[in-house]
Structures are given as structure tokens and as C-alpha cells.
Amino acid sequence: MAVAKKRQQAKAYRPDGQIRQSQMITTFGPGAMVDLVDRAVVIGGLEHWAYGKKGFEALDDARLRRSLVPRLKALDPDLDLAQEGYFRKAPEGDGRDPFPSVGVRVLEFPRWFVCQSCRRLARAAEQFENKSGRYRHECKRNQFSHAVPVRFVAACKRGHLSDFPWIAFAHLKREERTCDAPELYLHENAIGDISRIQVECRGCGHSNPLSGGAVLPFTCNGDRPWLGGRAASETCKEDSKLLVRTASDAYFAQVVSALRLPEPEPDPLRARLRERDVWKAVQKVTTVEQLSMLADLQELVASAISGFAPDKVVAAILAERSSAGALAERPLRAAEHDRLHSAPIEQPGLIPEPGAEFAAYRVPPSRLDVPQGISGLVVVPALREIRVQMSFSRFDSVSANLQGEFDLEGRSVKPAVLTLPTGNEKWLPAAEVRGEGIFVELDEAALAEWEQRPAVRDRANKLLAGFSAEATGPFPGARFYLLHSLSHLLLTAISLECGYAASAIRERIYCGQAEENGPNMAAILLLTGTTGSEGTLGGLVEEGRRLRHHLREAWDIGRLCSNDPVCAAHDPSSPSSDRRTEAAACHGCLYIAECSCEWFNRFLDRALVVPTVGNDPDLAFFRERP
Length: 626
Hints:
Elements: H1 2-12, E1 33-35, E2 40-43, E3 49-51, H2 62-75, E4 87-89, E5 102-104, E6 106-108, E7 112-115, E8 120-123, H3 124-127, E9 129-131, E10 134-140, E11 143-149, E12 152-155, E13 161-163, H4 166-170, E14 184-187, E15 198-201, E16 207-209, E17 241-244, E18 252-259, H5 268-273, H6 276-282, H7 288-297, H8 299-304, H9 310-323, H10 332-341, E19 358-362, E20 374-393, E21 428-442, H11 444-451, H12 454-470, H13 478-495, E22 505-513, E23 520-530, H14 539-544, H15 547-559
Parallel strand pairs: 4-21
Antiparallel strand pairs: 1-2, 2-6, 3-5, 7-8, 7-11, 8-14, 9-10, 10-11, 12-13, 12-17, 14-15, 15-16, 18-20, 19-20, 20-21, 21-23, 22-23
């Protein structure tokens, strides 16, 4: 009996599903809806992530933390990150020996089910019987049919989620929005057209087509079931809208990533001054005389500044005070670009140390074979990328800026949070990718000349007109369209020979002037990696050394599209255009897997890279085949 009981307990602990750790910050993060075998659930917020006795694996990165804290504050003033353990890998469960104290808990959602036989629609707890973990409905006496979760829910642009108001929706034509004995049925047909899906109440005879639920005449009630039900609700003034649980617009994760860059050696004097007690004592010092007097009175200060010239100490105090509490962190991409741009010259036989977090070497001019317009190539045999989810949205994705950061300050509609802002979870889910890459720099002088061409200026005006009609935020400019399109063409060309699938290679675009008085960035980083501990095999780096060959292949790919001349003649400024953020771009030439593209296959125009059918050749940055 004891053995049988243990076996029953083990079966009860069997998990309902498994998800890769890296997917817990993208497709299946907190607030995402997932179909299990017999149920539908919503992934729980960070309060529902359990690590057990083993504890969590921290993926802390100080530079990324400093960038994220003010953005979290813009999302909600109560959000913050701890000083340690602020980025954590998702819990690692064991499918062979599962235990409920380790893993991510999910909450049943939606709570309305529909009978697969008679199409009865009701709350599971009120109408259906739970039999061996599955709901069933007694359609007729002693005749049972399984009930499944209804595939429609209600949501708003702020990410709130609730059961669709079925009773009120079926009775929209009644003033009371209900009847004395509501008995709902959901009638669908094989076509699946939403206009032919009817919600019928047999209690009063009223019905309503589901197509009327695109925008509901109800205000969102602010439900956040992933945080624990109605107790986590908040006030919301957005309109409630119909949402298909499995639709592509049901969940957009806002993921911020940064390359792990070795921290520079700290200034020993500044490090001493930053000690809490020392800084509290010296923070108001402005002259050497004040410093000397303070050192005579306090042994703590005298010990801290011992060995340093008094004038240098005062200068360090003034510099530290000017940035204390409000130190402006450099943009993520600007810091990465500087580190890659200033990479040391590659020496024969030089390989990165085992386990190195970052290693980049510039290919010397004597070994560099590139066409005009390319100024340099940096190979990155070892890199680590930290990817952190900070929020999520529904219906509309939230675009990052050119630095890969999300500007949430001043947004009227902000994304949803992953945890209760007033709770104790001061961390974010993260994943670490280990891999390699190649960094291709364009020549700034050639770019400046290209941007001044009349044909390019006219094209930029058309791209701006299309962008203004559909997208939000500042226009990225023709330079960004060029870099992004070149990135897609080069990625496709390299994937044919490097040993990695095109979907395994990703892009990072470095474009524009990141800082006032800073250098103009114009570069592409193509990288591949894995969340495993072994990293990658070096195929991308070695193929990157054959850059001219791959640029030729990219030129040939972009020169002619299977949809030409329609693709090449596409005008994003035309009111009849259905692709306002792209010009000469489509699935036949530039579109790649969305997991590889930072910008959801938007802001593309191959006519800016290579000559195309029917377009002015002056548009092309590479007029001749490399």
C-alpha cells in the first residue's frame, strides 16, 4: 500500500508541460497564454517562479542593470532591481523527478469552457464536471462529452486579460445586458470566419455574432490573472477588445539584450571615495584646505586618501559629486560599438582564453579583402549576450530605439509588468547566450557622400512619408534602412556556407550618433549562439574572413527578386500601400526569420544597397558588384 501511495503521489506531481528556459523570456514569459493537453493556462508572474533548495542561477550584468532601472521606474515608480541576483535564469525542473516546489506555476485561464458536442458555453466550475483532470458535460442523460477552453478572451492594449463577457455580449440588444436564466451556446462553422460565429442564449432567444466583439462597449476591468487573480487588478481606462488566445498578437515580450563587456579597471581613488562612510564624510569638500582639516579630524578620511595628492583627491570628489545619484549611463549600443571598434589587431595564433566572456580582434589591412565602402572587419570568436525581459504587451509590439532600449517615459499606453510593483520580487527573468560573431563597419566618408545624392534624398522622403503614416517615434533615416537591408542580405548569403541555419544567426545594428559629440555609428554585428555551456564552433567567424565573397553573394541576392518588378517598384509613401515601413522588400528577397531580425522585418529597402529593376542606380550604396 505504501508503494502504491508513493506512485500515486509521483503521478500527481507529474508536470503538465515543459518549456525551454530561454523561451521563458520570449514566447512563454509571465502573462503568456499556453495550451496544455486538457487545459489552457496563463504563465504566472515572478511571484510564482520557484527555485527550490538549489536556488537560482544569477546572470547579473551591472551595465545592463544601470540601463534598465530608470526604464522600470518609467513603467511603474515602485519597480526596482536588487543589488545582487537581479537577473535570474528560469527555474530548471527535472521531468524525470518532478517536484512542485521547483518550476513555474501556471494559473487556469480562461475559466469559460465549451462542450465539444452540444456547444454549451459556461464557466467550468458552474456547468461542467471535473473527471480525472478533464472537464466533461452531460449533454443528455448518461451521455458525456469533453469540454475544452474557449479560444476567445478579452484584453486591452495595456496587457490586461480577462474572460470574455459572454453573458453581456449575448444580450447587447437588451437593456439589462442579461436575462433571468442565461443559457449560452457558441456556434462555429468549418470555415472559421469570425462573422459566422454566433453566441446564442437559449434562455431568452437573443444572439450576437462574434464579429461585433472587435471593440467591445465595455471598459477594461484591469485584470492581471498572471499575478494572482482579481486581487492584482488595477484601474484601467482602455477599451476591452476581443483576442484569440493563440493569435500572434496575443503576446509581445519586451526583451533588452547587451553583450557582456569586461568592466574597465576601476580608479583606485574613486573606489575609495565611493565607500559609504568615506563618501558621507567628504561629499561636501570643495577645497584642499577643507580636505586637510577633515583628514586631521577623522582618521577614516586620512586613511582613505593616504598616498594621493590632495589636489587630485579634491578633483575626484568634485567629479564624483557631479555624477553621484544620477550617473548618466552610456547607451548600450554605443558602449558595445566603442569596444568592437577599438578591438586590438589580430595576431597569428592568438586564440581567446577558455571561458572568455568577450574576445574581439580586428583583421589587419594586410589580410583584409573588402570592396570600397567597407572600412573594417572585426571577428568576435567569443561573446556572451545577456537577454532580459522587462515587460510585455498585447495587440501592438513596443519598438525599441536604435540603441536597443525601450523609451517608456511619456508613453500614454505602457506595457504590462511581470510582477507586482509593490511586491518583493526585485529581479527580472534572463537568459545568457554564448557564441561568436563578425562586426562589419561601413566607411563613414562613403556613407556621407551617398547620403547627399539627390536620388537618396528623394528616397528618404518617401520612406519618411510611409513611416509617418504607420510607425511611431523618430524616423531612423535612410542610413538605417541601408544597414538593416545589408544585414539581411549578408545574413542570408553567409548562412548558405557557414554551417548555421539562417534562423540561428541574428543581427545587431549600430547606427546613428548615439551620444552628443560622439562618433557616428555605421556597423553590423552578425552573431550566433546557444544557451548551452559549450558555445559555438567558429564557423561564422571563419566565413566572415571571406567577406568579399559573401558580399558578392548578397549583391546577387538583392539584385533581382522573384517578385520583381512589383517588389522593386513598391512605393511606401503611396496611400494604397499595405507595407508603409518597407520599400523594395518582400518575402522573396529581404524578409528573414523574425527570431533573427531585431525589427520584425520592417524598415527595409534593398534599392539602397544594390541596383534594382526600375530604380535609379544612384540609390545603391554598392553600385558595382563587389
